[in-house]
Design a protein that fits this description.
The protein is α/β, with parallel strands linked by helices and 102 residues long. The chain has a single domain (3-100), classed as Glutaredoxin (3-Layer(aba) Sandwich), CATH 3.40.30.10. Helix content is 34%, strand content 27%. The protein contains 4 helices and 5 strands. The protein has helices spanning 11-16, 32-47, 62-67, 94-100, and strands at 3-5, 22-27, 52-57, 75-80, 83-89. It has a 5-stranded mixed β-sheet with strand order 1-3-2-4-5. A hairpin with a 2-residue loop joins strand 4 and strand 5 (83-89). The longest helix is centred in the middle third of the chain and has 16 residues, at 32-47. It is globular, with a radius of gyration of 12 Å.
Amino acid sequence: MSVLTITSENFQQAVVENPKPVLLDFWASWCGPCRMLSPIVDEIAEERTDIQVGKINVDEQPDLAARFQVMSIPTLIVMQGGETVARSVGAKPKAQVLALLP
C-alpha cells in the first residue's frame, strides 16, 4: 500500500476514520535519523496491506506535531480507532518498528 502524506486537511479521514491501524511517521527533510528510518517505513507500507502508513512533515504540519506533542524526530505513532496505541522516538531497526504494529 502506498504511503500517504498526512496534513491537517486529510488527517480526520485518513487517520481517525480509517478502519485500519495507521502508522504515522513524523519527520523533517533536514533530520538525518529520519532519512535512515524513511526507507524502512516505505518497505513496511509495501509489505503490510493490513495497515495504512502516513508521513507527517513536522515543518509543514506544526499543528499536528504539537497535537501529538512531538518533541523529537523521527517519532512513530500507531493509531487505531482514532486512539494512540503505540509510540516510539528515534530511528529503529525494522523489527522494532514492526513490533509496534498490531
